[in-house]
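#random but structural
TW: two for the price of one
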Amino acid sequence: MRTLRLLLVDDCLEFRRLLARLLRRPGYQVVGSVASGEEALAALAGSAPDVVILDLAMAGLGGLETAKQIRREHAGIKIVILSLHSTPEYRAAAAAVGVHAYVCKANLVPELPVALAELCA
């Protein structure tokens, strides 16, 4: 089984810690954990992730704009958006910028592993 290298991006440190614990299992390696879109873009060069798990709503460079820049500059990296919002409008906006998966934080535990597995298929 291939190990999926993950970069975690969320402005809440406690949530990033929770996410890292959730992903502490065979098949996943957290290669970075940052608090903003700006930090994510800077970290991409050094961490070489396969997947960026990105919060939608962050101060500064938001999740959608960060996703756009990742797609433009690192087209091979997959992007998963995490959000408190599960409306079709948010999902459509994420899809429009090239996001590969959208997971509502309320359903994080059951949905994120499934989304990551689908990205590897």
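TW: number two ↓
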Amino acid sequence: MKSIHFSNKSIFKGITFLGISQGFVVIFNILRSKLIAVLLGPVGLGLHGLYTSALSFLTSVTNFGLAVSSVKEINNAYLSSNEDFLKTYTIFKRLILLTGFFGFILSILLSSYLSKVTFGSYDYITDFLLLSITLLFYQLTIQNESLLRGINNVNKLIQSNVISAAVSFLLSAPIYYYFKKNGIIWSIIIYSLIPYFISKYFILNLNLKKVQVSLGEFIEKSKIILKLGFIISITNALSTLVSYLLRIFINHTSGEEIVGLYTAGFVIILTYINLILSSMLNDYYPKLSSCINEVTKVKNLIHNYTKIVLFILTPMITIFIFFHHDIISLLYSNEFLSISSMMILILLGMFIKSISYILSFLFLVKNTNRLFFFNELIFNLYFLFLSIIGFKYLSLLGLGISYLVSNLFYLIQVNYLIEKHIKINIDKSIYLIAFLLFILCCSTAIMINFKFHNINLALIPLIASIAVSVSKFINIFKVSQ
């Protein structure tokens, strides 16, 4: 068995490689958002956000977390024997079809309800009927991508994702241009179809022979796959439901334009920050699983990953804050400049979230499923409450404040639950490092409006954050040599 490297250098290399690959996907997602913003404005972006929020909620309810839970079983079977692998994959395919058609039919049945709840009228029933096909194809895409992950064929998975993002954008661009708002539905459908066909192409040469699987084998293996997947599905459903309800609340109280502005703020931040976090996850999760019974290794791994992620995020955040007006105008248009303050607060919230994100995987790896669910439930409840209160009194600024405060509470909550129930004490030095780096981010946000002899004072923490991070990574490579 290959040894797993836990050094800072290997961590940095792993995150960087996957991050660069994901970066190409991000570019096409940014181009898509820019296209919608320019051609359709905040209202069009709001409509797109409402449709996708509704679909995301249905998907999280009906996919049973197969995208995560299946990979481990496929990988174990792949390393065991060819027959075991083919049987596991056959069972997985059947689960995909069952859950895919379940989502498809449920979406059709709920189309009138979704139209009424989301938009306050039944005028959008046809739209949701058309969009129901996306739930089936999202699951079919998961089938192909989970297979590639399960057999550790990362190169093909990356190629599939990049090509899918490029082709989807190129096909949907003329639809937005010619059909404007009427093209939103067809674009969303394209974005569900293309990834399936592209990923299907990349698994054609894997020589997956058909094998017979008895009903007993299907039930037994399905229970294993669905056990963890169900918990993940429920927790994902919670977060997407909160996002959906929040957009509905904003739409009913302030209209589609404000929903568009809110969506724009989160799309920019999540696109950039999730680039790092998702890249980290692909490298971090297997390593954490491999050493979960060795407390010292777990603590060192968490400490190293948290430091690396924070030193990557800090200059990204300070640069984004310093140039936020230019970035908003470039990625959207001047119509979206009103989201500036909200975006800065969301960025600061994402800095804090990156720490709790790394820590929270201990719940899954330790198989404390109930604790994981309880942790996410409590967070989503007070996040929704604070967001509604914040928006009611301070509009978009209130949403930014609520996001920052909620993630601060969440970090305290995660740390408490880990130390009390999992019995792992997180190294306090990581919080000191995080605090100092957070000060640099806050200083950039505070000093952005102050100048001394025509020099923006925010340049001081900006340059400091870049210098600190660069020196840290230079030191990592020197120590590793």
